[in-house]
Specification:
heterodimer, A: about 200 residues, mainly alpha, about 85% helix, B: about 280 residues, alpha/beta, 6-stranded mixed beta sheet, 4-stranded antiparallel beta sheet, 10 helices, 14 strands, elongated
Chain lengths: ~200, ~280
């Protein structure tokens, strides 16, 4: 499985430089963004999209066929993509949170409860899109799966503005946050198991 | 031990069926799977690797059922597909590092030797290689992890004659080492004629013929004669015939024609073409 992740990292380095640059610019804006959630969520969303982009390259270069002929289990091929998703999005989410914490400390606004909501929002955003789209990508291929992903991005971006209003007016009861974390983690694991099941049944041409 | 045993392999699609295909590839031998485009060669190879799910039959690779812990068996199999499948952004060095983590018996020095032997630039991206170079890199990977069985799908197509000759020599070297075996599919019959010990003709999903190459070339031949002379040849000896007002020619089994009949040798390519026409 290390081989699969190494191959993905080589591809990221080669193909996704411009995307990583955009993510970097958005991340740098966070301390000066006056708490705008779009700047916080967008980089994490973009990063969470990368495993799906790599799946598209795999299909285009016929790596998915070649890989199926190499000594990997189908479950390892799927797991490598989910691991990559976590390896990319979780450090990104932590970076965004750290920068947001710096912004709150420097501004002296004391919106620490908003930071907790942001943490959960980032977790939801970073795992939800992958959790929902990956099984479709592994079952139906990238073209159809990507269509679903675009729909999810539209909903997520729209809802980020709603979440922003919420953080200004509503303080979520503390127990809701761990429950949401557990739900996201559960959904991610369920999606992973579902993708393995679907990919094991799939015929690779 | 047989490197590969396929019995009654069946796979149905709405517009194509692989029909009860049976083949055996003994260790130390090269088997050529010859067929026109769409005959089922790639389908067969993908069924062997369990990339496609068979509808019937059995496949045994190196003594094990191909559904029984196949990733372990694949450690002993080298595969090269028509389009190879290495991501375009990778260079040969990066491919080597990935494969070192993939195969337990990865031979880094052997891989480097193949890169030099094939004159493959180490830091050039795969997408900037010519088709021949891409195929050679695929072969370098397939030959650098002490595989005992090579599965090659159209691995010589797209190569120039010199490169094809080089590849044929390398595959012959591989097959001569111990019990190593090669299954190679192609529609370029001349390459297989040089390389193979056994030949299988595949036509529209069915095996038309499966024999030792030397037996095939000895057993089958062409008769060029008049229509009257053709009529004198026993029917069971004739596999295909073409009669014009002035002459006749027929693909015949030498063992079934009368002694004294002049039978000229036939190339593997002509044999395949005539048999395919007859099967139409």
């Amino acid at each position: 499985m290390k081989a699969l992740i190494l191959k993905d990292l080589y591809q990221l380095k080669a193909y996704c430089k411009s995307l990583l640059l955009i993510v970097g610019v958005f991340t740098l804006v966070i301390p000066f963004s006056d708490g705008n959630l779009f700047f916080c969520i967008y980089p994490v969303m973009m990063i969470s999209m990368l495993p799906m982009t790599l799946l598209s390259y795999d299909e285009r270069t016929k790596w998915n066929s070649y890989c199926a002929a190499l000594p990997f289990r189908r479950s390892q091929i799927v797991t490598a993509k989910y691991l990559l998703c976590l390896l990319l999005t979780l450090p990104m989410a932590l970076l965004v949170l750290g920068l947001s914490a710096i912004r709150i400390s420097v501004s002296g606004s004391g919106q620490w409860s908003a930071l907790a909501v942001l943490a959960v929002s980032l977790l939801v955003m970073s795992t939800l899109s992958s959790s929902l789209s990956m099984p479709f990508l592994f079952r139906f291929g990238v073209e159809k799966g990507r269509l679903l992903y675009i729909i999810i991005v539209c909903i997520a971006c729209g809802s980020s503005f709603a979440v922003q209003d919420l953080t200004a007016s509503v303080v979520l009861p503390v127990p809701v946050l761990p429950v949401m974390v557990l739900l996201c983690a559960g959904l991610f694991v369920l999606s992973w198991r579902l993708s393995i099941g679907m990919y094991e049944k799939m015929e690779i041409r | 031990m047989n490197a590969l045993e396929i019995k009654d392999l069946t796979k149905h699609y709405p517009d194509f069926s692989l029909d009860r295909l049976s083949l055996t590839l003994p260790g130390g031998c090269v088997l050529g799977l010859i067929g026109e485009n769409g005959a089922g060669k790639t389908t067969t190879l993908r069924l062997i690797l369990d990339m496609l799910h068979r509808d019937g039959g059995s496949i045994t690779i190196l003594g094990k059922d191909n559904r029984e812990n196949l990733p372990l068996t694949k450690q002993d199999i080298g595969v090269v597909f028509d389009e190879v499948g290495i991501p375009g952004c990778l260079n040969a060095l990066q491919v080597g590092k990935i494969m070192a983590l993939t195969y337990k018996n990865w031979d880094s020095r052997g891989y480097q030797d193949f890169l030099k032997r094939f004159s493959l630039p180490e830091k050039k991206r795969f997408q900037d290689y010519s088709r021949g170079m891409k195929m050679k890199l695929g072969l370098a990977v397939a030959l650098s992890h002490k595989a005992r069985l090579l599965l090659l799908d159209e691995a010589t197509s797209g190569l120039d004659p010199v490169a094809r000759d080089q590849v044929v020599d390398i595959l012959l070297d591989f097959a001569r080492q111990g019990d190593n075996a090669v299954l190679i599919s192609s529609h370029i019959v001349s390459d297989l004629e040089k390389l193979c010990d056994y030949v299988a003709f595949l036509h529209k999903g069915k095996i038309m013929l499966y024999e030792e190459k030397d037996f095939l070339l000895g057993e089958y031949g062409m008769v060029h004669c008049t229509k009257e002379q053709l009529d004198a040849i026993p029917r069971e000896a004739i596999l295909h015939k073409k009669v014009t007002p002035y002459s006749a020619e027929a693909l015949v089994k030498r063992s079934a024609v009368q002694s004294g009949t002049q039978v000229s040798p036939i190339s593997m390519e002509d044999l395949f073409i005539y048999m395919s026409k007859e099967a139409e």
